[in-house]
Amino acid sequence: HTKFNWEDPLDVQSLLSEEEMAIRDTAHEYCQAGENLLPRVLEGWRTETFNHDILPEMGKLGLLGPTIQGYGCAGTNNVSYGLIAREIERVDSGYRSMASVQSSLVMHPINEFGSDAQKEKYLPRLGKYSDSKGELIGCFGLTEPDHGSDPAGMETTAEEVDGGFVINGSKTWISNAPVADVFIIWARCVWDQKVRGFILEKGMKGLEAPPIKNKIALRVSLTGSVFMDAVTVSHDQILPKSLGLGSAFSCLNSARYGISWGVMGALEDCIARTLEYALERKQFQRPIASFQLIQKKLVDAQTEVALGLLASHQVGRLKDSGKLATEMVSMVKRNNCGKALQQARIVLDILGGNASADEYHVGRHVANLQVTNTYEGTHDIHALILGKAMTGIQAFA
Ligand code: TGC
Ligand code: FAD
């Protein structure tokens, strides 16, 4: 007779290797213990400040670009990448955003579409954060003020000139942009109308990245606009193997997959905190955990965690064995983000008036989860991706 463990109801742990568990435990320890991630979150949230120590700390532990082979990166599998995202987002979706942009949206495209020289130049400094060459923060610019769900309409252009390219346009809602050293910018090339990626660097003439202030979510992660007014780059700055919007989407596949694990970590934190509260808080002379309505909320939420983690685990294994269909990523991204937002919002009620107090953490997760349900393709856009796969009919336009 096996004892039921409510924290891992369907024994996802039994599906992990020793190495995967060790990576998860390293990430968990960094995120929860000592003076690291959790103790910083409230101050970061209240003051909307980016903590420059965090990415280097993650880099030293091998948590950035972890699936990349070589260049000082850890070379883990995709299941481990998901486990890392889950541990970081257990603390805050904004910290996971910082890390997933760096790993999936900056290091991945350089590794996948970059030249050998670009890989040598950027990957060690984006990933390892431990040598004397310094450290780099990256951002990924796809979304534009007038083109979010429909990036194919992008207006940013790249024009070939003597010695390189001139880039004009603007991007908005770009994570890490105000502090970025390296900008992966997607632009339509005027010579063949195809979208390609370009690597821009902080300080280039005509490049500005002002912050978008006063966000009501993801406040520990900086978000900005990117304005490009005739930014001139050399031929060395195009990602030579990128071609078409599919190259940008391939980065999203990796990030969306990580988010599907991450949001389950955020929901797990909401459940753990509200369960503890329900056991301690008494009304009508009884712990509120003794009321059926409270128990149902907790059980519904934990059920979604168990199912969501199993689904992401399966997608990770298929990704690791080269059997991934990208629609699988849409399914787990959509399901897990939607369920996390819905269930976190429901367990928040358990806190009563304290739901409004930031030191109870759950309200912060709920605010963050609205963004995770929106970025990297909204809940409804992923429904349409899956609807197209089921019916053969595209319903976007
Ligand atoms: P469509 O005609 O369907 O496709 C254009 C080309 O792309 C290929 N493709 C993919 N390739 C790899 N992976 C995928 N998931 C792919 N999806 C499509 C496709 O095969 C085609 O290739 P080719 O060679 O035939 O040209 O494209 P569409 O223009 O109709 O797009 C439809 C739609 C809605 C699916 C797409 O535009 C979409 O996904 N929209 C959502 C936009 C989005 O996700 N933006 C994310 C911005 S980045 C971000 O939010 C970062 S937040 C990070 C953080 O802080 O954590
Ligand atoms: P819109 O596309 O205008 O959508 C508005 C609404 O209309 C949504 O509900 C959508 O589902 C719906 N809708 C749109 N089209 C259809 C349709 N055909 N059928 C039915 N419904 C439809 N982008 C980046 O490139 N890089 C980043 O690092 C990044 N970080 C972000 C960080 C934050 C904090 C936020 C909030 C966003 C970030 N984004 C980033 C942008 C994000 O990807 C977009 O906000 C998202 O893709 C949605 O685009 P939009 O905001 O323009 O909404």
TrEMBL record:
Its cofactor is FAD. GO terms for cellular component: mitochondrial inner membrane; mitochondrial matrix. InterPro entries: Acyl-CoA_Oxase/DH_mid-dom (IPR006091), Acyl-CoA_Oxase/DH_mid-dom_sf (IPR046373), AcylCo_DH-like_C (IPR036250), AcylCo_DH/oxidase_C (IPR009075), AcylCoA_DH/ox_N (IPR013786), AcylCoA_DH/ox_N_sf (IPR037069), AcylCoA_DH/oxidase_NM_dom_sf (IPR009100), Glutaryl-CoA_DH_mitochondrial (IPR052033). It comes from the Eukaryota. Residues 244-390 form the Acyl-CoA dehydrogenase/oxidase C-terminal domain. It is found in: Mitochondrion matrix. Pfam families: Acyl-CoA_dh_1, Acyl-CoA_dh_M, Acyl-CoA_dh_N. Keywords: FAD, Flavoprotein, Mitochondrion, Oxidoreductase, Transit peptide. GO terms for biological process: fatty acid beta-oxidation using acyl-CoA dehydrogenase; fatty-acyl-CoA biosynthetic process. One of its GO terms (molecular function) is flavin adenine dinucleotide binding. Belongs to the acyl-CoA dehydrogenase family. This is Glutaryl-CoA dehydrogenase.
